[in-house]
């Protein structure tokens, strides 16, 4: 069970860097924005994924439609207020994160590139688009038939497809990034991206597009599932800190079940099978708390990966209860939605009380990307000099060096 | 020293309780004791009576204690029983390795402390019968190992006492570690030394890492010992029956009860009316299989009760663990093949009861695959893993036949997902797969099982034999034929009981063909049905004949189950090394090399341990001189 991290967490940086670092440390001044810009990465969109799916869950649970058997009977004012609060909160967070991230794209583009080269980090590039699609779907006032919905869908779905082409192409063609080398549980996020797009397309009643996205996602899910289960490379593909990402194992089948539900119009046997698979994987992961012990030592942003798979499972169980009435399905749904709300609240509180830990100096994704960034800027362009002089990661690298010595 | 020796020797001669061997050793190697200083000896006594601290870092305290206790120990050593008989080679092994530690790091072995402490507490009680053999404890164990493995050539003839020693070898596999027997003999007034009681407990045998199984065993079923390996139990003698009774015996139940289902389907299906099969065949076969399940389960339950350690080792065996699904699958088969005259409807709760153990086993096994570690799929994949998949489909089939809705879909979904993973992995024949048979073996027939059962299960779930069922059925048929054309299957392999488990896929394919022919009824499907049913019946008959031959003529139906008795090699594990590093303080680099040399090869270890006791004591004297 001991799994070594493959990242150079404990290895001292090369000597060239250290000279650069010490020079930078000397002239460094503290600014919040460059700090955030350096520390932030696409993994932060896990927060908006969680919030977006939570909003969707409450939309489904609260909205009284004529055929809904699962909706909580509540006055209209009540549910629309709750929904609007949740939705606007997640929208604000998403806008904030997107702004910061696009700023990073402008000023620290090489770091984005390094993120793209990272085998875990690259999958989180799907997260912003998935979050936006979710916000779009859970919006309380726009219906899927509306023109703005269609336009926005295209805006958010096309980057997902472009990323798909790029990543799936890397998997099955030449190069160092073939699947067995890069596969890790976070890779399932690319599948989730396709399936969310398929679900939204099915809501717009664009059947062909949604089936296209669904089949694209499912075929690669199949390949990925087999590869991940085989675990050819042992356990070293995923740093121990990112273990919460294992929860994506059951997120993918849940979202597939939801997507198929939207496409076929009823929660039929394939949807049920996907939901049951998801449930089994959930049980299987819950039974192995030892797997997550290493990640649980200190709060970090990866913890947000616990939240949205549970919410997704709760969503699928809500649809399941709609199809199969009964005590068991009701119990499953209540349990899972309760758990998802609790986890989300807990994470929100932890995040609110630990703003420092929100920008950790030993983020596994950032660690490698920052090193790449540092190396690529030994001869700097003037504009970037300004930013990187003040950036905090020299401090971080220094710390890493100290860690390595101790 | 000498005088005490002489004082004791007449009694030794008269005593019938003393093993002649030890007498021989003490007689031969008295010279070793002569060279000892008194203080060294007292230290040796102290160490073997477990008085002193475990850690080498407190060496000073240790020495001080030696000073304090020397008087006491001098007075007591005449009365104390210090010989320790190892109950089993495992203990001997542990002590061997620990002894090496002890020699290097100048501390007492942790393991011996409770034992000798126990003997110390008995000082008062044992004064009368006490004998002083003047043998340091590890030495005794080593000698016994030498005796029992008959490696020393110049040993005196055995006496019955040693035979009894040999029987203790199985104790480490026993659930109660022979405690009960000792209590009984204590009641009889025959007091036995209690040294062994702690070391015998199963806790001593930690779970064997999966790599050990790969290192020590070979063969498609991982049941043959590699030439370089040694086992814990005597390999020249038949073990107790329960130890030889493997969990794969449940394969018989699988084979026979699936026949019962086939004959039930033949009797009841529309498309096979022309065969005029009597339902009585099903009735007879069903009763036979019930009897078999009861017998096998009872025997195995006895094994669980009496030799739990052996069961545990089977559970850790990367291939045997799949056979732990067999009993539950056999019960599902019994429920499926229940004669119509007997009962037509089963209560739904039965299904839940039967599926619960399967569910938990799956959580365990699939979880091991997914979460990596030593038992990840790319390492342990083997055709027998199909047994852990088939349970899902059989359960789905039974549940859907009973009219349940959601439960069968659940197991079908879980089974399908993991079947896909397993199928791809087995087809890839990854180089990391250490257990995949290199050549053909009957175990490959398990490939047929999952798709044929899945086709029936899906047909039951959907209500019709639709495209999904047909796809699964045709996959099964193709796999069956691709295996069937390779006819020289059963040649060149040692027969084992596990082969029974490989017949049920054939029967499953035959049943699926009956189902298919009742949807698509024409001459071809009817011929196919008859052929497949005949083949499966013939195979089962042939296997029955082979089993009877092996059971009653060759009498080797239950050979020694080598795979549960591989040695732990705990000295190779990093844990021990780490512990050793903690104790290392003060020892020189040459000692490190020394340690590594000994820990690397067992052979050397044994040789080293046969050296006269003076070896040991000289080291002790060296340590106390420091």
Automatic annotation (TrEMBL), chain A:
This is S-type anion channel SLAH4-like. The keyword Transmembrane helix applies. Keywords: Cell membrane, Ion transport, Membrane, Transmembrane, Transmembrane helix, Transport. It is found in: Cell membrane; Endomembrane system. Pfam families: SLAC1. One of its GO terms (biological process) is intracellular monoatomic ion homeostasis. It is a multi-pass membrane protein. GO terms for molecular function: voltage-gated monoatomic anion channel activity. Belongs to the SLAC1 S-type anion channel family. Signal peptide: none annotated. Its main location: membrane. Slow, weak voltage-dependent S-type anion efflux channel involved in maintenance of anion homeostasis. Homotrimer.
From TrEMBL, chain B:
InterPro entries: SLAC/SLAH (IPR030183), SLAC1/Mae1/Ssu1/TehA (IPR004695), Voltage-dep_anion_channel_sf (IPR038665). One of its GO terms (molecular function) is voltage-gated monoatomic anion channel activity. It is found in: Cell membrane; Endomembrane system. The keyword Disulfide bond does not apply. Residues 194-204 have a biased composition (Polar residues). It is a multi-pass membrane protein. Keywords: Cell membrane, Ion transport, Membrane, Transmembrane, Transmembrane helix, Transport. Signal peptide: none annotated. Residues 1-22, 187-206 are annotated as: Disordered. GO terms for cellular component: endomembrane system; plasma membrane. Residues 1-13 have a biased composition (Basic and acidic residues). Its main location: membrane. Pfam families: SLAC1 (PF03595). It comes from the Eukaryota. The chain crosses the membrane at residues 241-263, 283-302, 323-342, 348-366, 387-404, 410-428, 440-459, 471-490, 497-516, 528-554. GO terms for biological process: intracellular monoatomic ion homeostasis. Belongs to the SLAC1 S-type anion channel family. This is S-type anion channel SLAH2. The lineage of its organism: Eukaryota, Viridiplantae, Streptophyta, Embryophyta, Tracheophyta.
């Amino acid at each position: 069970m001991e799994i070594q991290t493959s990242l150079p967490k404990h290895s001292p940086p090369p000597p060239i860097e250290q000279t650069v670092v010490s020079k930078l440390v000397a002239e460094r001044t503290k600014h919040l924005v460059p700090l955030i810009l350096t520390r932030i990465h696409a993994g932060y969109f896990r927060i908006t994924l969680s919030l977006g799916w939570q909003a969707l869950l409450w939309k489904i649970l609260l909205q009284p439609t004529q055929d809904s058997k699962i909706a909580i009977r509540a006055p209209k004012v009540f549910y629309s207020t709750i929904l609007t609060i949740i939705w606007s909160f997640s929208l604000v967070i998403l806008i904030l994160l997107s702004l910061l991230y696009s700023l990073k794209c402008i000023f620290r583009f090489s770091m984005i590139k390094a993120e793209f080269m990272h085998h875990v980090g690259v999958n989180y590039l799907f997260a912003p688009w998935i979050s936006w699609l979710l916000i779009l779907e859970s919006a309380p006032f726009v219906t899927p038939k509306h023109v703005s919905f269609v336009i926005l869908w295209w805006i958010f779905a096309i980057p997902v497809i472009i990323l798909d082409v790029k990543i799936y192409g890397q998997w099955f063609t030449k190069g160092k990034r073939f699947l067995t080398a890069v596969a890790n549980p976070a890779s399932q996020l690319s599948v989730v991206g396709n399936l969310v797009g398929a679900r939204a397309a099915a809501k717009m009643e664009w059947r062909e597009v949604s089936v296209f996205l669904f089949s694209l996602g499912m075929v690669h899910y199949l390949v990925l599932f087999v590869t991940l289960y085989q675990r050819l490379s042992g356990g070293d593909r995923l740093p121990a800190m990112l273990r919460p990402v294992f929860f994506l194992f059951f997120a993918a089948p849940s979202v597939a079940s939801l997507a198929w539900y939207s496409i076929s119009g009823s929660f039929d046997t394939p949807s049920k099978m996907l939901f049951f698979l998801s449930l089994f994987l959930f049980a299987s992961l819950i039974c192995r708390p030892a797997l997550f012990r290493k990640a649980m030592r200190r709060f970090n942003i990866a913890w947000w990966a616990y939240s949205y798979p549970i919410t997704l499972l709760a969503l699928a169980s809500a649809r399941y209860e709609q199809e199969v009435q009964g005590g068991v399905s009701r119990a499953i749904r209540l349990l899972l939605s309760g758990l998802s709300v609790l986890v989300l609240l807990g994470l929100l509180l932890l995040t609110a009380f630990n703003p420092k830990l929100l920008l950790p100096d030993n983020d596994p994704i950032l660690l490698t990307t920052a090193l790449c960034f540092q190396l690529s800027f030994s001869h700097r362009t003037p504009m970037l000099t300004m930013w990187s002089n003040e950036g905090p990661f020299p401090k971080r690298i220094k710390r890493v060096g100290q860690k390595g010595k101790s | 020293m000498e005088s005490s020796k002489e004082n004791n020797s007449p009694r030794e001669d008269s005593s019938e309780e003393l093993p002649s061997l030890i007498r021989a050793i003490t007689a031969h190697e008295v010279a070793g004791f002569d060279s000892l200083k008194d203080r060294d000896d007292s230290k040796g006594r102290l160490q073997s009576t477990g008085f002193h601290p475990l850690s080498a870092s407190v060496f000073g305290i240790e020495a001080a204690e030696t000073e304090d206790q020397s008087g006491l120990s001098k007075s007591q050593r005449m009365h104390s029983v210090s010989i320790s008989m190892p109950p089993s080679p495992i203990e001997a092994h542990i002590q061997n390795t620990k002894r090496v530690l002890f020699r290097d790091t100048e501390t007492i072995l942790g393991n011996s402390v409770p034992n000798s402490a126990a003997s110390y507490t008995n000082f008062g009680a044992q004064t009368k019968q006490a004998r002083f053999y003047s043998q340091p404890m590890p030495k005794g164990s080593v000698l016994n190992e030498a005796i029992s493995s008959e490696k020393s050539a110049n040993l005196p003839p055995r006496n019955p006492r040693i035979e009894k020693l040999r029987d203790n070898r199985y104790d480490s596999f026993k659930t109660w570690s022979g405690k009960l027997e000792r209590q009984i003999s204590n009641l009889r007034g025959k007091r036995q030394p209690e040294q062994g009681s702690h070391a015998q407990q199963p806790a001593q045998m930690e779970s064997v890492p999966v790599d050990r199984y790969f290192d020590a065993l070979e063969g498609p079923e991982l049941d043959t010992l590699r030439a370089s390996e040694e086992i814990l139990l005597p390999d020249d003698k038949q073990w107790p029956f329960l130890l030889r009774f493997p969990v794969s015996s449940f394969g018989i139940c699988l084979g026979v009860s699936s026949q019962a289902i086939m004959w039930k389907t033949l009797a009841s299906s529309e498309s096979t009316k022309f065969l005029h099969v009597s339902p009585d065949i099903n009735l007879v076969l069903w009763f036979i299989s019930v009897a078999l399940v009861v017998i096998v389960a009872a025997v195995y339950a006895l094994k669980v009760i009496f030799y739990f350690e052996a069961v545990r080792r089977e559970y850790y065996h990367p291939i045997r663990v799949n056979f732990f699904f067999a009993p539950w699958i056999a019960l599902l088969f019994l429920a499926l093949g229940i004669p119509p005259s007997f009962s037509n409807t089963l209560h739904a709760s039965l299904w839940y009861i039967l599926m619960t153990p399967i569910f938990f086993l799956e959580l365990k096994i699939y979880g091991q695959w997914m979460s990596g570690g030593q038992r990840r799929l790319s390492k342990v994949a083997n055709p027998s893993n199909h047994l852990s998949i088939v349970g899902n489909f059989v359960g789905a089939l039974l549940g859907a036949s009973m009219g349940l809705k959601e439960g069968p879909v659940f197991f079908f979904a879980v089974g399908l997902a993991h079947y896909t993973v397993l199928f791809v992995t087995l087809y890839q024949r990854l180089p990391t797969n250490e257990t995949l048979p290199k050549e053909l073996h009957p175990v490959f027939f398990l490939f047929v099982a999952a798709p044929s059962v899945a086709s029936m299960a899906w047909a039951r779930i959907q209500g019709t034999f639709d495209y999904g069922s047909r796809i699964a059925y045709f996959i099964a048929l193709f796999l069956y034929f691709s295996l069937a054309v390779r006819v020289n299957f059963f040649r060149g392999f040692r027969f084992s009981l596990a082969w029974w488990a490989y017949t049920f896929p054939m029967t499953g394919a035959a049943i699926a063909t009956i189902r298919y022919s009742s949807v698509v009824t024409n001459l071809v499907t009817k011929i196919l049905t008859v052929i497949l049913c005949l083949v499966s019946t013939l195979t089962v008959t042939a296997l029955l004949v082979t089993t009877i031959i092996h059971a009653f003529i060759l009498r080797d139906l239950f050979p020694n189950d080598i795979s549960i008795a591989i040695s732990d090699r705990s000295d190779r594990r990093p844990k021990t090394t780490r512990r050793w590093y903690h104790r290392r303080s003060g020892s020189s680099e040459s000692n490190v090399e020394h340690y590594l040399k000994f820990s690397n090869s067992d052979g050397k270890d044994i040789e080293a341990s046969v050296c006269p006791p003076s070896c040991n004591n000289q080291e002790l004297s060296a340590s106390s001189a420091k």
